[in-house]
Amino acid sequence: MRTVFQTDVCMDDKFDIQRVESRMAGRLIGCRVVHYQTLSSTMDKALKLASQGTPDGTIVSAEQQTEGRGRFNRVWRSNPGEDLLFSVILRPVASQLAFLNMAASLAVLATVTSYGINKPVIKWPNDVLVGAKKISGILVEAELQPDGAANVIIGFGLNVNLDPSSHPDIAETTTSINAEIGCKVDRTRVFTNLLEHFDDLCSQIWLGHSLTQRWSNELETIGRNVRVGWKEQILEGRAVAVDDQGNLVLEHSDGTTTTVTAGEVTLRD
Hints:
Elements: H1 6-9, H2 17-24, E1 33-39, H3 42-51, E2 59-65, E3 84-90, H4 97-114, E4 121-123, E5 127-130, E6 133-144, E7 150-158, H5 177-181, H6 187-206, H7 212-216, E8 225-230, E9 233-242, E10 248-251, E11 257-260, E12 264-267
Parallel strand pairs: 1-2
Antiparallel strand pairs: 2-3, 3-7, 4-5, 5-6, 6-7, 8-9, 8-12, 9-10, 10-11
Helix pairs in contact: 2-6, 4-6
């Protein structure tokens, strides 16, 4: 993986979709990019296009979302033209679905690392953090078909040139590539870098390889005392592992274990 240094990236940001499609030609992910200045949500638009038969690997991106959302329907904050807001249409078989979440967060991690940012980590199940601050969130929504196939939409929000201080309510919990390295970043280069990593990882999935161990190695959650909230249930324990599908295994004080398939994790130590 090529490391991109500050002298390469401190430049005016001119987002160029044609450059992205040219760079991704011959690959599955990003061979087609449908770009909008403003959308309510790239997830909703991608899901509509997927139901109409839009090809695998198509990306729906936007400069601004008026109703962008993260996990648990939380609002995703981003100023127009500063960050990467996009969703990818894929149609894996059901057994590959869990690995796509892993591939997405690993691709973001590799991209952030390539900009010289130290020690980004993944918070289970798919947030990417730098110094305990969120730099990226990922949302996966799927519609399973009777034959085992699925329309899967993977949404990415990556803070590129966001100034966290522009959103005082999240300034203490959010960061961006710009905030970490101290200069404005070429979003087109970040976009292609991320898509290349994601395409490479998806290629491993299509070949039948598991990403679980590689993903688990990057989880800051493992080995920590955590509280997991899901709907009306609260579980506490030590996160000791993830299973092959990426579910979190908690060990409780009495020695019993629980496998958690979804939820909001809070570190307790």
